[in-house]
């Protein structure tokens, strides 16, 4: 995202929870915490029901996280 916005990388982007600035929000406790990673594999509990979604995603799912090349037909015969 930083590259797209033509902004320089700063380590503080990855350590946002170490910022000492005042933050007034209901979720201020969450803002002061590192990204929650304990639930990353919970999707496996639902895998038996993900077949139709996997089929619909097709090559996108196989190529993740890279986007697959899209073959566009010209429509001309």
Please, could you describe this protein's structure?
The chain has 77 residues and is mainly alpha-helical. The mean pLDDT is 77. The chain has a domain at 11-63. Helix content is 21%, strand content 0%.
The radius of gyration computed from the alpha-carbon positions, rounded to a whole number of angstroms, is 20 Å
Oligomerization: single chain
Structural class: mainly alpha
Number of continuous helical runs: 3
Low-confidence stretches: none
Q: In what range is the share of β-strand residues?
A: under 5%
Question: Descriptors for this entry?
Answer:
flat; mainly alpha; 3 helices; 77 residues; 0% strand; single chain
Short description:
With 77 residues, the chain is mainly alpha-helical.
Fold topology:
Elements (H helix, E strand, L loop, with lengths): L27 H4 L19 H7 L1 H5 L14
């Amino acid at each position: 995202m930083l590259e797209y916005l033509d902004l320089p990388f700063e380590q503080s982007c990855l350590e946002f929870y170490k910022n000492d600035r005042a933050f007034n929000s209901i979720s201020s406790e969450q803002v002061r915490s590192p990204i929650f990673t304990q639930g990353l594999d919970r999707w496996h509990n639902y895998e038996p029901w993900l077949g139709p979604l996997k089929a619909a995603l097709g090559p996108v799912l196989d190529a993740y996280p890279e986007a697959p090349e899209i073959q566009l037909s010209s429509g001309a015969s």
